[in-house]
Amino acid sequence: MLQALLFQGIDGLAAASGLFLVAAGLSLIFGVTRIINIAHGSLYMLGTYVAATIASRVAGGLGFWGGIVATALLIGLVGAAIEIVLLRRIYRAPELFQLLATFALVLIISDAVLWLWGPEDLLGPRAPGLRGAIEVLGRRLPSYNLFLIFVGPLVLIALHLALARTRFGRLVRAATQDREMVGALGVNQAALFTAVFALGSLLAGLGGALQVAREPANLLTDLVVISDAFVVVVVGGMGSITGAYLAAVLISEIKALCISIGVVSIAGMTVNFSKLTLVAEFLVMAIVLIVRPYGLLGRLQGVVRTVAAPEEPMRPAPIALKATGAAVVIVLVLAPFLARNTPYALVLGVDVLIAVLFAASLHFIMGPGGMHSFGHAAYFGLGAYGAGLLVKWAAATLPLGLLIAPFAALLGALVFGWFAVRLSGVYLAMLTLAFAQIVWSIATQWTEFTGGSNGILGIWPTAPFDSRAAFFLLTAALVVAGVLLLRRVIFAPFGYAMRAGRDSPLRAEAIGIDVRRVHWMGFALAGAVCGVAGGLFAFAKGSISPETIDVGRSIDGLVMVLLGGIQSLSGPIIGASVYTVLQDTVMRQTEYWRAMLGAIILALVLLFPDGIAGGLAKLWRGRA
Amino acid sequence: MSVLAVADLAKSFGGVRAVDGVSFTVGEGEFLALIGPNGAGKSTCFNMINGQLRPDAGRILFAGRDIAGMPSRDVWRLGVGRTFQIAATFGSMTVAENVQMALISHAGETFRGWRPAARRHRARSLALLAEVGMQEAAERASRELAYGDVKRLEFAVALASEPRLLLMDEPTAGMAPRERTELIALVKRLVVERGISVLFTEHSMDVVFAFADRIVVLARGRLIADGDAASVRANETVQQVYFGTGRAFERRRERAP
Fold first, then answer.
1. Which of A342, A345, A611, B33 is buried most deeply by CB count within 10 Å?
2. Could you tell me how many CB contacts below 8 A there are between chain A and chain B?
């Protein structure tokens, strides 16, 4: 038993090296450019495919080892190109907007890989010279894993020396602390950003290339790797390379421990520890962030003086906007009649409405609250599962299910929010992500109660809402009410207090506003409203499963809010509608819908750097 | 009776004793200047009084209550207003809304979720802005204001809660000399009308000697003088600290056994 544990521990170090390489690149890029590069996992995935291809074409050691070097350099070039062609154009957009562009890249790279290499997993060759295994503790450890164990620390030392000794390293460290000052000292920021982006991408490519000899390249790698890498970066402390290595080791070892413990019965309860691997890293992240808000070796981030145009004061809706709103409501009421010959329009309409409520509730905390939640799917899921479980176990009717949905989500948001509002910026984002993953893994793992990965089936609306038209009208009524409620609150003292706490926490506290409490309550309200969206979703689809509440849904929410424009109250409504309709239309047009969607998002990003609503408002003002 | 009584206040950062056993009082309606060279401990003193820092030792009595270590929002509720050295306003709100936010908080309406904030306390907000000469700018975004106007807005925000004591950290920092005198004259007139006591720090000696009722001088964390303008001006230690050798303390310590 002890030997098995030690062996798993040693093997865990090999996994830690791989994790470290991706995380180090992500950390470097974030530290200097403050871009949350979701496409980092995609670059890693690209690395696995490129390395596997080179190694299969060029025989022998040159193909494998040379291929790894060539891949790393190539991916570094791809990174530089991305920075120069795309990201450089949008540095002045509002905070987080670059995230939208990198998300579009995720979609595009994913389909590019599908087009170039096909859907099958691509098996890489074994490493020449390291095909064997050596005897460790009576078990056989592949020599390649032993090699990987040393790669991590070697890269760590190389990076450390580069950062400590070279001029480039000094600039990177300086820019991580105060980017504006580095610019003021006459350093060419554009070149520095490109170089850092290239270096970070190179590390991602290297990580991917090294992994090929262990696991086949596959299309799902991008999102798996990016969420792992985020966890490692945050646990280690943003911008700290040594921290990233420590965190990679910590998380890999805990996972290895869970696997080797296996099934154990504690006090009559059977606990399967190997099932915990799904959630282990997020539990670690949540605990670390609660105890050490800046990660293991992280420090308070230097303030980035925002370069984007700040938000305009809010004015009550002008007549044109009120008229538009009224027209939308009239269309919604008449929709079942108008769409009597195209029943699919109503189905899509329900999807759009649910997305609107989801995005509006996320915008409520992101915009006025300034809290960037990366885990809004948690409250959607709690609402959906709250309703679904009540139907499954208590045969509840639709009204009862929809009544419980916001309360289930509210409860979750109160608990998670209490911790989340103690952090800010990207740490808050990652803690919310961790909570969402915990909800997701409970839904996946607690098979007896939640139905596991199959989810819950047969959650259909009960009479009188069992017709398509009636359910549409119910959805429309609840969504319009929810959106109007949030709008009302934003204009009320509570919404002002949220913005006050966002604009200047110091000043807000100095006029008696308990900023944390206000933001906590805002978080809870957004969670409850989001729960309604989740409940409606469960009844609309007739089922709920973990994959509908995974990290993808949280990202969808972010994309909707940012696409519409975070500084505008109608932004999330426009963003959610456009995104949902686009997704639906593009998906039915082509097999490569992801790339299409990505291209459309990129075009919108470049055309409307303030989001669609912000861009429209600018056009309107320009004409007037 | 004094509004604020600070006794034996102390705070260290690492090995540096930033504030070291400082005691002074602010009387009812008094306009008291806290001065001293850079690094004297003025800001540290200030931040302990307004609740941003917890003192290592000592008491801060406001209207007879010890407020040492209390969060700044609670200190404010007891009747202590403040302005910042680097003016802080809510950039996404209009000038009038900035004042309304303070009035809303003062009225205990922060958690109200229905009637629009922009319609609450509007008349009172405009009246306060008129008093500081800002009524013209009421509908502008506060982030567009010139710096001198931001300072006046901050002052209006501070008055909104009808404080008994106003803490002003370098109210005229970064202003042109004429603007500076105008602002302090305005502040002095309005607080005298309302009977508000003021504790302020200031670098401009012209402002200090022209307007302060009393002056407290700090140097290297210690209080070295406390009196009216004439006595502080004549004080030998103060002269040494500001103009002299910079070794005033070493000499005193040598003389003392």
1. A611
2. 115
